[in-house]
Amino acid sequence: MEAFLQATALVDYNHPSIQQLIAEKGWKKLSDYEKIRQIYDYVRNQIKFGYNRGDDIAASEVLADGYGQCNTKSILLMALLRGTRIPCRIHGFYIDKKMQKGALTGIVYTFAPANIVHAWTEVWFEGKWVALEGVIIDDPYLKQVQDRLCSYNGGYIGYGIAIKDKGSINLCWRGESTYIQSFSITEDLGYFDHPDEFFAKHNNVKGTVKKFLLNLLRKRINRQTDVIRRGGIRG
Asked: Which residue intervals define the domain Transglutaminase-like in the entry (predicted)?
């Protein structure tokens, strides 16, 4: 399991801010179950659903931003888990961009690739790999959009969510896998020991133009997600 505990450029759990958070929360003193539960809940609800300057940014930057999406939240989650000696890996996919409609709008949605690079963290717990995709969406945001998801292809999608049954969403971790975007998966890209390897190969914002557009527009996108979170959805 040592390969799944290593620090990397992205999983920078030795960064002072991450070490300080781990110490303040007392996570190292907990059982493995409680470590995973509390760290998962922290990243899910204290790091709001939103968009960073890219997919391949260090965990310490995600923590400083205070928000993240599937890829960046997964990186921070891995750093906190590995920093408390919980083995974890990354599982990569492509997902249909239709599920982002509502969270992404206008020119940002137009320029988003049809298939978006997506990843979740898998943690080793009680002899098996457990997926923690549910970490992406915080409770206040979910509360506002759950009843507004659109019926599509036998499930429900929209606002950064893709789920089979919108009436039974439960993102609390109780020892089993949690999912919130998996219904829109179009291709499995495999398992990677480290996110650095995955995002070097697959990345939503490769290229100068895409990076420029994202950095130009992401603050507006995050303001919109905050409006949604406060109950300001229109239509």
From this structure: 62-136
